[in-house]
Every structure is written in structure tokens, then in C-alpha cells.
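COMPLEX REQUEST
Ligand: zinc ion
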Amino acid sequence: MNLELLYMKPKEITLNTQHNNNKISFTDDEIGNEHISTSVDTPMKPDAFVLSDEEKQKKIEFHFREIMETLGLDLTDDSLNGTPHRVAKMYIKEIFSGLNPDNKPKIALFENKYQYNQMLVEKDITFYSNCEHHFVPIFGKAHVAYISNGKVIGLSKLNRIVQYFSKRPQVQERLTVQIAKELQSILETEDVAVVIDAKHLCVSSRGVQDNNSATVTSFYGGKFSQESTRQEFLKYVEMKTNY
Ligand SMILES: [Zn+2]
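STATUS: Structure written out below.
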């Protein structure tokens, strides 16, 4: 066992998402040339919703069976036989359900009756997504914040918005910006911050096989672009809780 590895501090790759003209540019080479995303919107074909969910599930099941058979697996084995069906169902109903706008959470806005116009932070939102370059998991914590402009939403809705955009093939930078833009639009304010701290299985379980690295992405809109506001937000995120 290499002791040095044990005591090595987790490496962080910090990417400040720059979103000029709807393009995301990468500032760190380490993430690899293959990790390039092209736009803030998930690239979808114009006919993405011509097939129903049931039709898509049947088609994926057929093709996943082909993949498994090509790998040489014996699909008559009891343990493997149901896998194509399970994978197809999981893709459509669970892990990629956020591709379908019908599944977008319906968000009701409330008047801010308490006159609470300070920062509201919802931190440590656990999410599971999948890397669009390798189709293996990305998972971690999202921290979101906004400063109310007279309107508020239920706390659980912040969580739901994170989950909705996570359930797509993603790159972390796009996920960060999609959550932020959605909150800005719903809350009718620029004053939104999103920080995502995540682990990519395509980095830790294959490729460079780096088990210690984490990727941090951030979006700071409106008042959060001021240093003091940003620091206040980060202080709450780092605050230890004893419950
Ligand atoms: Zn990947």
C-alpha cells in the first residue's frame, strides 16, 4: 500500500462556468479533450418526442440486447435475460426522465410574506446524474442559493429542480448552468448561485483511474458576482451542522 496515496488530499478541479453566447468554455485541460460540451441546452433532435415513452423503451430494450449479445453474453441465462428490459425501463422512467419536458417539476411561486429578503441557501442536495461522454454516473452535492425579489418557492422545489436536470446525460458545467438559469427564470431574479461538487466515475473507475479527484463547478448571477455576497454563500455551504 502506498502511504503517500492514503494521505494525499483530494484534488479539486475548479471550473468557473463561463456562459457567453450560450457556449460553455472549459478552462482546465485536466478534464480531458473529450469532455467538451457545446451549449447550455441539452442537444436534442427536432424529432425527440415523436416516439412515445413506451415505444422508446421497446427500442432501447431491443438495442441493449444487441449490445449484450455482441459482448458475447448468453441472454438465455436467467440472471441476464431480464437485463435489457430493466435497463430500458430505468433509462426512460428514471435516470434519463429529465430529457422529457413533461417531467419538469411544476413550481408554484408564493408572495414573500415574511419580507425575508436575505439570502436563502439550500445546501448538500444529493444528486445522481450520468456523464454524457461515457454513460457512467456523476454524483455529488449541489448547493443552491437565491435572494428573493418578492417571490419565493417551496424548499423542496429547489431539490426537485436539481433532480430534474440531473436525470439527463450531462456534463457538470451544463448541469450547473441549467439549474441556475431555471431558478433565475422561475424566481424572476438574476441573484442565484449554484455550486456543484461531484465525482465522475468515468475518471475514477476507468481512464486515468483517479480516485481522489473531485470536480467543482459554480455559477454566480446578479448580486452573487459581488465578492462579499459570494463569500457569505460559501460560508453557509462550508458551515458544519450538528444534527
Ligand atoms: Zn465521462
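REMARKS: Residues 1-10, 18-33 have pLDDT under 50 and may be disordered. The two ends are 36 Å apart (CA to CA).
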